[in-house]
Amino acid sequence: MAPGQSGARLIGRRDECRVLDDLLRGAKAGRSAALVLRGEAGIGKTALLKYAIERSDGCRIVRAAGIQSEMELSYAGLHQLCSPLLAGLDHLPEPQRDALGAAFGLRSGTTPDRFLVGLAALSLLANAAADQPLLCLVDDAQWLDQASALTLGFVGRRLLAESVVLVFAIREPVSHETLAGLPEVPVGGLLERDSRRLLDSVVTGPLDLRVRDRILAEAGGNPLAILELPRRWTGAEVAAGLAKADARPLSSQIEREFVRRIESLSVETRSLMVVAAAEPVGDVRLLRRAAELLGVDVDAAVMNASELITLNARVRFRHPLVRSATYRVASSTERRAAHRALAESTDPEVDPDRRAWHRAQAASGPDEDVAMELERSAVRAQARGGMAAMAAFLERASELTDDPGRRSTRALEAAEAKFQAGSFGSATSLLATAGIDPPDELTRARIDVLHAGLAFAQGRGMDAPAPLLAAARRLEQFDVALARDTYLEAVSAVVFAGHLARSPGWPEVGTAARGAPPSPLPRATDELLDALAMRLTEGFKASVPAIESALTTFSADDLPVQESLRWLLLAGVIAADLWDLERWQTVTTRHVELTRRTGALSGLPLALDSSAVVLVFAGDLMAAAAVVEEVRTVSTATGTVQPPFGALALAAARGHEREARALIDATVSEGAVHGQGLGVTVANCHHAVLCNGLAQYEEAMSAARAAARYQEEFGAPRWALAELIEAAVRSGSPEAAHDALEQLSETARASGTDWALGAEACSRALLSDGVAAEDLYREAIARLARTRVRVNLARAHLLYGEWLRRENRRVDARVQLTIAHEMLSQFGADAFAERARRELRATGGRVRERAVAPQSALTAQEAQIARLAGDGLTNHEIGARLFLSPHTIDWHLRKVFSKLGITSRREISTRLAQSTATSATATI
After folding, report:
1. Model pLDDT, residue 549
2. Among 458, 720, 775, 369, which Cα is nearest to 579's?
3. Average of pLDDT values for 638-648?
């Protein structure tokens, strides 16, 4: 944009301007969008933001800018953006209001879940746009603090129908993973003709053609370079073509030009510039106070640097490169003086954290007083949910600490905060510092625990048991309950590592856990530890009574909330291992409810995924699909990556071969790389289910053998035995089936549940003849009918019907096959239903073609929202569950109403029930 031109006349930015115009028109029509403008320094991103402002008639505008020196202050950027909208804070649902208020330091309370903060920010923006479209602009997004960047990235990905436009400008080559997935417009250099127009608009005197060409070549279409590079040469050099070439990168050339101009300033003016560069807020009064402490005449200094800095309502640099160049060229003495003046000028009651940070930057060596002040700031940052800020305060505090033991403790606390913030590399470095001179065994134990946490987080779960056992042993002398919890963490780690666990393995971890000192006040966790330790050392059969007792305890409603949140997932694993779907469903349902109620949303994807697997076994594949979609929604919103067990179980049960095979391959390969042996076994088990449904029995047998190989693992290896027996019988390998039956019988009878005994009876029937076989099929059906394991029940009817047809009892076979076909069709278990259909036709039965259910016209997200609305949830409640605004939920529901041919929410449940009724009918 040439000097004096309006944004509507940006030179060479027609395409970029068209994109912004489309977004603004969409907002006025009720649509939302997010956009990232990405380009090098000086390329014109800020000019495009100004263009958007000029074109935003009828829109409300809120703005924020990332500031490099403020990157350690949690939620500073988000607070800057949302400050004009905070009058709407009280209109948010209470959990969201409290979370955002705590994040901004406006309310006290527990540390807010960052995803709840994100949902609150989304709701705040959506509510503000209810009466007037909202344009949100974030410049220099590469310098946003981590908490703000994560939150705004989350908001950008969830926008749809709120009349909100969110535009980020981000400098390359800086990467910003938090904004990954948002639509981008790369802002490149101007075309040569546009570059010439811009250069002509700023060079008023004669210009040698060779110099013109050199300027344009070096600028590479960068507008700021075109404006600034001619300033480094004299008029004679420009006119005569005597200017020297510069081989440095363009950004360095532009910054060097700013440095040259800064260095030419007087000492007083440079002092003012350094103070302004070190002060992140742009507070004019604060700048004046600090500069006066340094003896600077502010007005005179600003006049001398008027081309670089202005003081109006806020302190503004000509370009962010001016700020960075000013700070970089300053000596360490000048920087410390600026920070010291800013610290002394900052009110410790109003802004204690910025004051502490300035004091820390002013320190030239160890300073315990400053370190303690930084610790207090870290506590406040933790209360706001700003783990990255907490880590930064603690890291600097450790650097200013002279005492080795205290320095180790502070470095460890900083490492723990870095770990919570997801900065695993920094956490590892700080952990090394903490390990140099730890003051006591308790600190060494905490270091071991964090080493284990980093192993998990970095996909090395098989390496976690060793440091956890070391930590647990050290903790015994300090805190028995904490030691036992750490032993349980080690047990959990080895359970999930399964056959890929490294030393120490199952026996060593189990033996160590059994040797843990007893808890003085027994808890549910202690019972779970003792049961699992027995399971690891003595095997399935011996541990069943202890496992049942622990499972009963964890199925109770009066379990403490924190204990439940931490261990209900593991309780679900032992319920699955025990073949107890009823209690598995109880603990997974409670786990999901608690994560929602307490706002512990980072654990929600795992809880939901376990619930989806339970629903697949129960035959409610439609509900399972809704939960799997919710897992995807929440995982995308929260950035969570985990094995897709729910999606895999669902695809295998449905017989959706392409989808299931892709999930199986991904789960097996990822599990092998990251040491998740149990995940590999589960994937192989579902592979066997898929292939049995598709009548690919040789492949089913191979997959089942792989899953059944490690019988010491939990759950899946014993389910796989039943799949192996069915596949072996169908592929003519009865000897393999007999061996598997022997193993299955032992564990099924030890379990004693109807699911286990029903599976054993059905498997034994496959290897029996005559009356014995029929009696076993009937026993299997009777037992499974007493459980919620409906898919297995339908499959038992299918196997019985197939046996009857082979016995030439066609009428009896049609009865069983009809039941199987109707159940499997209603579930949506398409491959097994097709097996039943083929068998029915072989008996002379007829199957009417399946009608297309109305719900099939809905997208996955529409079906999910329809189901929740049919369950009676409000738009606000659905939005909170799916991380969407109520406006977006309303938009989706209007589409649902249109596709289902209904006019009110009351009709949703009825219409969905009609679509889930049996859609294929067999005729005997």
Report:
1. 96
2. 720
3. 84
DSSP H or E stretch at residue 225: helix 223-228
Identify which of 192-206, 276-290, 564-578 has the greatest average pLDDT.
564-578
The pairing of strands 309-311 and 315-317 is: antiparallel
Q: What angle do CA 430, 433, 436 make, to 5 degrees?
A: 155
* Cα four-point dihedral sign 469, 470, 471, 472: positive
Distance, CA of 96 to CA of 104 (rounded, Å): 12
Dmax (CA) for the chain in angstroms is 110
Tokens 């971890």, residue?
Answer: 509
**Contact between residue 642 and residue 609 where contact means Cβ atoms under 8 Å apart:** yes
Query: Under a CB-based contact definition with an 8 Å cutoff, are residues 476 and 520 in contact?
Result: no
Structure tokens at 734: 């009865």
Main-chain phi, psi angles of 154, to 5 degrees? -60, -50
User: Does residue 792 carry a pLDDT above 60?
Assistant: yes
Which DSSP letter does residue 44 get?
Answer: S
Tell which residue, 760, 755, 773, has the closest CA to residue 812.
773
Query: What is the number of other CB atoms lying within 10 angstroms of the CB of residue 3?
Result: 8
DSSP state of 231: G
Question: Poorest-confidence range of 1-10, 192-201, 605-614?
Answer: 1-10
| Rounded Cα distance, 487 and 472, in Å | 6
Q: Is there a contact between 288 and 357 (Cβ–Cβ < 8 Å)?
A: no
Query: Tokens representing 784?
Result: 């499974």
Inter-residue contact 197 to 26 (CB < 8 Å): no
More confident residue, 114 or 496: 496
Q: What is the pLDDT of residue 313?
A: 82
Q: Is pLDDT above 70 for 921?
A: no
CA distance 853 to 825: 12
In the chain, the amino acid numbered 383 is A
Under the phi-then-psi rule, with left for phi > 0, alpha for psi from -120 to 50, and beta for the rest, what region is 256? alpha
CA geometry: angle 85, 90, 96, nearest 5 deg: 90
Cα dihedral across residues 366, 369, 373, 379: positive or negative:
positive
Q: What percent of the chain is helix, strand and coil (3-state, nearest 5)? A: 70, 5, 25
Q: What span, in angstroms and rounded, lies between the C-alpha atoms of 33 and 163?
A: 8
What confidence score (pLDDT) does residue 250 get?
44
Q: What tokens does 454 get? A: 């980093």
Check residue 3 and give its pLDDT. Answer: 43
Question: How far is residue 178's CA from residue 75's CA, in Å, rounded to a whole number?
Answer: 14
Indicate the SS3 state at residue 288: helix
Helices (H), 515-603: 524-538, 540-554, 561-577, 581-598
Q: Which of these ranges, 252-261, 427-436, 620-629, has the smallest mean pLDDT? A: 252-261
Distance CA 690, CA 791 (A): 13
Nearest to 378 by CA among 346, 340, 412: 412
Q: 170 φ, ψ to 5°?
A: -135, 140
Q: Are 494 and 501 in contact (CB under 8 A)?
A: yes
pLDDT at position 912, please? 72
- Please name the amino acid found at residue 359: R
Q: What is the pLDDT of residues 722-773, one digit of tens each?
A: 999 999 999 999 899 999 999 999 999 999 999 999 999 999 999 999 999 9
Bridge partners (DSSP) listed for residue 34: 166
DSSP state letters, 380-393: HHHHTT-HHHHHHH
**CB-CB neighbours of 452 under 10 Å:** 25
- Tokens coding 130: 């209810």
Q: Is the pLDDT of residue 110 over 50?
A: yes
Q: Where are the beta strands (DSSP E) in 676-716?
A: none
Specify whether the CB–CB gap between 398 and 411 falls below 8 A. yes
Is residue 232 very low, low, confident or very high in pLDDT (cuts 50, 70, 90)? low
Residues 136, 81: contact at Cβ < 8 Å? Answer: yes
